[in-house]
Amino acid sequence: MKIKAVIVEDSRLARNELKELIKKHEEIELIGEAENVDKGFELIQKENPDLLFLDINMPEKDGFELLEMLDEVPMTVFTTAFDEYAIKSFEYNALDYLLKPINEKRFTMALEKVKAQLSSNTEETEATQRLTENSQIFIKDGESCWLVKVGSISHFEIVGNYTRVFFEEKKPLLYKSLNQVEEKLPLQSFFRANRQQIVNTNFIENVVPWFNGKLKLKMKNGEEIEVSRRQSYIFKDKMSL
């Protein structure tokens, strides 16, 4: 299976360096390259690559800003000339990072990670182009940023015009409305509990009957979420309760 890849890098020399390395790996198909964030965004939206080689430090907009623009983030390998970014990239849950000039052995190691990740990802694609549990979304809240697997998110909650995302022990804000988020989530595992919250049913530990025909969900992370009366009927049907 070919792995479709794109390069977003402002340096022509660095792009050429990456292309020469890619040529040595028949499983990688380079389907495009871009010299800045805006062109990179257009390229990714058009081609929907499996893999993104992304420079961090670019003029006007940096690589992190590109990730923030995307609804779904491809597997990302950061390329950088600066050690400080290499360390920081782990906060973003990047698949890997490569320090320039890129070592051939180190490049091959990064590709092994890519292939391992691909083999564990679901190949299911919904006609509506919804995300899957293995899809990644990019979240930037203040100075902190994350690449988060959709399946690792326990629930979403409205905060004004934004949405709070709950995963691990973190609760950053996503600068999209809950309705926008709901349109992209996989139907099989996410459920609208009420007007304010969407839950990942895989994180439900217990379901308790509540007042006036409502249900209360006890989540594995300790959170308790009340399901509206209308949604309680739908939830029972969905879960065959």
Automatic annotation (TrEMBL):
Keywords: DNA-binding, Phosphoprotein. The keyword Signal does not apply. GO terms for molecular function: DNA binding; phosphorelay response regulator activity. The modification 4-aspartylphosphate is found at D55. Residues 137-241 form the HTH LytTR-type domain. Residues 4-115 form the Response regulatory domain. It holds the Pfam family LytTR. It comes from the Bacteria. The keyword Phosphoprotein applies. InterPro entries: CheY-like_superfamily, LytR-like, LytTR_DNA-bd_dom, Sig_transdc_resp-reg_receiver. PANTHER family: STAGE 0 SPORULATION PROTEIN A HOMOLOG, TRANSCRIPTIONAL REGULATOR-RELATED. This is DNA-binding response regulator. It comes from Flagellimonas aquimarina. The lineage of its organism: Bacteria, Pseudomonadati, Bacteroidota, Flavobacteriia, Flavobacteriales.
